[in-house]
Amino acid sequence: MDPRTLGTQIDDSIMDKSLESRLLAMNKNYFLSVKSKVLDGRIFITGKVDSPEEKLKITKLAWETKGARSVKNDLKIKEKFNFKKSAKDLLITSQLRSALIFNKKIKAVNYNIDTYKKNIYIYGIAQSKEERKEVISEAKEVLDVEDVISSILIADDLRVQKD
User: What are residue 123's DSSP bridge partners?
Assistant: First the structure.
């Protein structure tokens, strides 16, 4: 299903594990609060941290990862826990995941979804521009969503072009 070459998948996995281990060395709490994903050398970071300084340190750490082509940091600064808001975010994520699974034009396994304060963050690899549009359209149709932030790459853009 993954359109990346096996070599690219291995490189991405090595980068991701390297970043995760350095994050854990920095702070063991990041194991649960910070998530990373590497696609074609592009690093995506989501989660929650206690301070803006932590967010900056994590961004710097990601950029220092060997092979990093770009870093998209969507870390949020923690606020007092609100069960109602967290439950709503979980419901939004679940609704979008279901919509992607049932949409025959979309390969749902190629996408990661995070929701924070009714904002959906979608990361993944689309087989075409049409599929990317379809995913974003599905996200915008979910009830109560305030914004859709997508980092969806097109499969053809991932492939290394020969000169």
Answer: 112, 151
Single-letter amino acid code for the residue at 94:
S
Whichever domain contains 54, its CATH number is: 3.30.1340.30
The pLDDT tens digits of the residues spanning 20-72 come to: 999 999 999 999 899 999 998 999 999 999 988 899 899 989 988 988 888 99
pTM: 0.65
Nearest alpha carbon to residue 133 among 120, 116, 119, 150: 150
Q: What is the pLDDT of residue 44?
A: 94
Same domain, 61 and 88: no
Residue 135 to residues 39, 122, 138: CA-CA distances in angstroms?
Answer: 18, 9, 5
Give 139-143 contacts, CB < 8 A, sequence gap 24+.
Answer: 139/96, 141/99, 142/92, 142/95, 142/96, 142/99, 143/92, 143/95
